[in-house]
Specification:
The longest helix has 11 residues, at 86-96. The chain contains three helices and five strands. Helix content is 18%, strand content 30%. The protein starts with 25 loop residues before the first strand and ends with a strand. Strands 1, 2, 3, 4 and 5 form a five-stranded antiparallel beta sheet that branches. The chain has helices at residues 34-41, 55-59, 86-96; strands at 26-29, 44-50, 71-80, 110-123, 127-131. 15% of the residues are buried. It has one domain (13-131): Electron Transport, Fmn-binding Protein, Chain A (Pnp Oxidase, Chain A). By secondary structure, it is of the alpha+beta class. A hairpin with a 3-residue loop joins strand 4 (110-123) and strand 5. Belongs to the CREG family. This is CREG2 protein. One of its GO terms (cellular component) is endomembrane system. Its main location: secreted. It is found in: Secreted.
């Protein structure tokens, strides 16, 4: 019913093993998930991350999804992780989300990553700053 329409989903994400963040979002996914099936057809995606430990939100005990809290939005192309990068992606995901080890093996899990093209930092009710990918 919503074919061709964008929609959101929650996926586990990691940008590297603990103490080795890269800034590149990695995902462990199954083609049985409608989101992943759509991404394999049209790989354009966005990812929004709330500032959970930001100064304002933490100091004032405010929900990280409150509009006064900073959020980062990344947009780009979702691509299958190349064979030479799979071990790193596995360490990245499994170190931060150990529950993945217990997921059913018959779901054809594989790794995606986002090749970031645009970065927006939104702070306090809509002020948006553009950040270059190089930064």
């Amino acid at each position: 019913q919503i074919q061709g329409m964008p929609y959101g989903n929650c996926l586990l994400v990691s940008d590297g093993p603990i103490h080795n963040s890269t800034g590149i979002p990695f995902f462990y996914v199954t083609p049985k998930d409608k989101t992943v099936a759509d991404l394999l057809k049209n790989p354009v995606a966005s990812l929004t991350l709330p500032e959970v430990d930001g100064n304002f939100c933490r100091k004032n005990v405010v929900d990280p999804e409150d509009p006064r809290c900073t959020r980062l939005t990344l947009t780009g192309q979702m691509v299958t992780v190349a064979p030479e990068e799979v071990e790193f992606a596995k360490q990245a995901m499994f170190s931060r989300h150990p529950v993945i080890r217990k997921w059913p093996r018959n779901y054809e899990w594989f790794f995606l990553k986002m090749n970031i093209e645009h970065i927006w930092l939104q702070n306090w009710y809509g002020e948006v700053s553009t950040i270059t990918v190089e930064e």
